[in-house]
Write a structure and sequence with these properties.
This protein is an alpha+beta fold. It is about 30% helix and about 25% strand. A hairpin with a 2-residue loop joins strand 4 and strand 5.
Length: about 220
């Protein structure tokens, strides 16, 4: 089961009224660089663990180890005058929801909380799993043979993110009003890895470009 992070955040009351937000001097400075409203940027700074850089229209941040534009704070699909945040404790929410289905409905189900993200040098959004329970976050394909018998040495499949992206094909980004997608018939082959997260020094992009990113 793939759930939109926004519907979970809304259910948790993770909405901020921007007219009640007083921007700090730092928020005003970054807002000018990014071309964003200072109250919105103030909310971003409150939610971000660190700021990696600023571009026109977005602030690149880290939130709980995930790279996020604007710390996941969004104006789309939020009431006018409000910003919607990422869900509170998404991993815990996914685990509790899975246990609820097992306890109350007697069914085994995997849960993925999905949020949109962008990838380096690629146009458009894809899905990103921010909470995972009952399903591997990734699959280790190392040691398997390719078509010509060569052993895979580094390949690991981002299973949860792949499913999150597939779910967002149906959920959409605008007014589709499809907050949940059920996946059936999934066959998982390979050694499961609980979390797809890696440390910045293990990431291809961060390890090569990290020295040029300014944390704050």
């Amino acid at each position: 089961m793939i759930l939109s992070s926004k519907v979970v955040a809304t259910a948790q009351g993770r909405l901020v009224k921007l007219s009640e937000v007083k921007p700090s001097p730092r928020a005003k400075t970054l807002a000018k660089k990014a071309g964003l409203d200072p109250p919105f940027v103030e909310v971003v700074l409150r939610e971000a663990d660190s700021v990696l850089g600023v571009s026109r229209g977005a602030i690149l941040t880290l939130v709980k180890g995930l790279p996020c534009a604007n710390a996941g704070v969004d104006l789309s699909n939020a009431p006018p005058g409000y910003a919607i945040l990422l869900p509170s404790h998404p991993q815990l929410f996914a685990e509790e929801l899975r246990r609820y289905f097992e306890r109350e409905e007697g069914v085994r189900v995997g849960i993925i909380l999905s949020d949109s993200t962008v990838r380096p040098l690629r146009l458009g959004t894809v899905g990103q799993a921010i909470g995972i329970s009952g399903i591997p976050g990734a699959l280790d394909c190392r040691g398997k043979s390719d078509l010509f018998g060569k052993k895979l040495r580094v390949t690991r499949r981002a299973l949860a993110d792949q499913l999150a992206t597939a779910g967002e094909l149906l959920m959409g980004e605008a007014d589709e009003r499809i907050p949940l997608v059920v996946v059936r018939g999934l066959r998982i082959k390979g050694r499961g890895i609980p979390s797809p997260s890696v440390r910045p020094e293990e990431c291809l992009y961060f390890s090569l470009l990290g020295k040029g990113l300014k944390r704050g």
